[in-house]
Each structure stands twice: as C-alpha cells, then as structure tokens.
Write a structure and sequence with these properties.
Helices cover 27% and strands 23% of the residues. The chain is an alpha/beta fold. The strands form five sheets. An eight-stranded mixed sheet has the order 8-7-4-3-2-1-20-21, with helices on one face. Strands 9-10-13-14-15-16-19 form a seven-stranded mixed sheet, with helices on one face. The chain starts with a helix and ends with a strand.
C-alpha cells in the first residue's frame, strides 16, 4: 500500500512538472467556412498565447459575425490590408453555411467591416500599420466604441499588447479602401470615379509570443528582399503563415521560394489559396495547395477549419487536433 501511494505521488509530481511545458505552446485555430476543410475564402486564424491572449488575424468572410461561437475571447484583431476578403465586407450567417466551393456571404458588414463589428462586441484592440488606424478609430467612434482601441504599429517599430509583441513588415500589395466602406456622397462619388481611398501600404506582421515563438504573417504579398533581411535576419521567424493564392498574391511556386530561400522557418501554415484546397479533409490532387506542400522544404500545414495546431517556441508542431 505504501509503495502504491509513493508511486501515485511520484506520478502526480511528474505530471505537474510536465504541465508548464505543455502550457508554453502557442495554439493556432483556423476559422474557415466549413469544418475540417480548407476553402476559397478561408483567411481567419486565431492565435492563443500561453498567457491566454487571443489574436484574430484577418477575419475575412468566414467568421459568422461578432457572435460566432468559435470566436470566444478576442483581445487583438490584426488586419493585413483593407480588401473585403481580409477586413470583412460580408460574411456567412453561421458557421458551415453554404459549401466549400460556394460559400455563404449573405450578411453585409458595410459600412463598418467585420473587424470593427467584432472589436465592438469583444472590446478588442485593432492593431494595424500604415495609415489604417485612423479609419478604424473613426468607425469605432461612430458606433459608440473607444477610438483608442485602434492602435498603430508602423514599419520599424512595434507595440506590446497582452504580452505579445507586434511588429509590421511590408507586404507588396495594393491597399485601397472600397468606397462602400466610406458611404454617403463621398463614397458614391469615389465609386462613380472608380477610385478607392488611400491608407498606405499593405502590411504583414511579425508576432513574438511570450514563449519566444516568432511568427511571420505574410498577408497578401509578392516577393520582397525584406522577407530575408527583416523577417529572417532581424526577427528570426520560426513559424510562417504564407499566402499562396496566385493572381492576387504569391502563387505556390513563388510562396515556396519565399519560404525555402528567404524566410526559412521551421514550419509554415498555408493560407489564402483561393480554391477548394481539401475535400473530406484531404488535400485535393492538382490543387495549388498540393503544389505548395510538395515544394516546401519544411513541414507545411493546411489550416483545416476548427482544427487546432500547436507550436512550441522553436516553431515546431507538437500537436494537431
């Protein structure tokens, strides 16, 4: 009996010692259009720091409004640029509405954006670069929110929110504000003239989590020397989220070059494929997603909606769910 008690106590002690190691990982949960799949509109990812801070990156069109039950607590919202498929001009009425190939985009978020609607409901900070913060501050204020919750992190600097350091890096992409987000006579005149508002350059992000994990979020981008000299050489990113959609952003071959030769992370999560990337949770043969996975020289992961990926401080996946 005494031996059994000692064994039980030793096992409990070992389990307790193991808990901090588990707790020091970063969780990444995709919030896509269809559970278990990677679909054309999928952009949104929730990062959870070991300290509990939760960051929503590019809510896009697959978060079903501020009341989406998958959101939970959101402390920070990151928006890479102002295009509707990233900031959210419309969204699905509920998770899993529509199909992977034909997503439900029946709910308009105009003129506020889905990012603002979520920030208002969750009292989140919206952290952006370039000239985007004044746009979000004005939208928050107009809807009874706190404009101070729109925070700036401009190129070459960083801010710390909830124990996570957030830096912006350049993304090679357009960043016009759709006149529908502006509204009124001014918005109509801009739309009639075929012009968009200017809020500066599009951005990517480099996040440094409390466990030391450095993560590069590419946003929509082309190939940049900064991906080597800044993202790799300065920040030493170990995990990357890389957009692979082609046409509007790097294609699978270009994205693989960025990962293999410039950033060289320990792991990469694919994003923004603009296609049905999986069927039944399996990568679709002949897809851009498949092409990138074959070309990547490091472990690459497909963001299946609702399936959490877990990474340690070195950018290595320690669990998938």
């Amino acid at each position: 009996m005494n031996r059994s008690i000692k064994f039980t106590a030793a096992a409990a002690l070992l389990a307790a010692l193991a808990l901090p190691a588990v707790a020091q990982n970063v969780k990444v949960t995709p919030l896509g259009g269809i559970d278990g799949e990677f679909c054309p509109q999928d952009r949104a990812l929730v990062f959870e720091d070991p300290n509990g801070t939760r960051i929503l990156y590019d809510p896009g069109r697959t978060v079903a409004g501020a009341n989406d039950p998958r959101l939970g607590k959101i402390d920070i919202i990151l928006v890479s640029h102002m295009h509707g498929d990233h900031v959210g001009n419309a969204h699905n009425k509920e998770p899993n509405s529509g199909t992977c190939a034909s997503p439900d985009l029946s709910v308009s978020a105009l003129p506020n954006t889905l990012a603002v609607e979520i920030a208002l409901a969750k009292k989140s900070k919206i952290v952006t670069g370039s000239e985007m913060p004044p746009f979000f501050a004005a939208k928050l204020k107009a809807n009874g929110g706190d404009p101070a919750n729109a925070m700036l992190a401009r190129f070459g600097g960083s801010v710390v929110v909830g124990g996570v350091r957030i830096a912006t890096v350049l993304a090679l992409h357009s960043n016009g504000v759709d006149p529908d987000f502006i509204g009124g006579d001014l918005g109509k005149a801009m739309k009639d003239a075929g012009i968009a508002g200017n809020v500066g350059s599009a951005t990517g992000y480099v996040l440094t989590f409390s466990n030391g994990l450095v993560t590069y979020l590419s946003g929509d981008t082309g190939i940049l020397a900064d991906q080597e000299r800044v993202v790799r050489d300065l920040y030493h990113a170990k995990l990357a989220v890389m957009n692979i959609g082609d046409g509007f952003t790097t294609g699978p071959a270009e994205a693989a070059y960025v990962m293999n030769e410039l950033v060289k992370p320990a792991s990469v999560i694919v994003s923004h494929a603009n296609e049905v990337g999986t069927v039944g949770g399996k990568v679709r043969p002949g897809s851009k997603t498949e092409a990138f996975l074959k070309a990547a020289k490091m472990p690459a992961y497909v963001p299946l909606s609702g399936k959490t990926l877990v990474f340690d401080g070195d950018g290595k996946a320690v669990a998938t769910n």
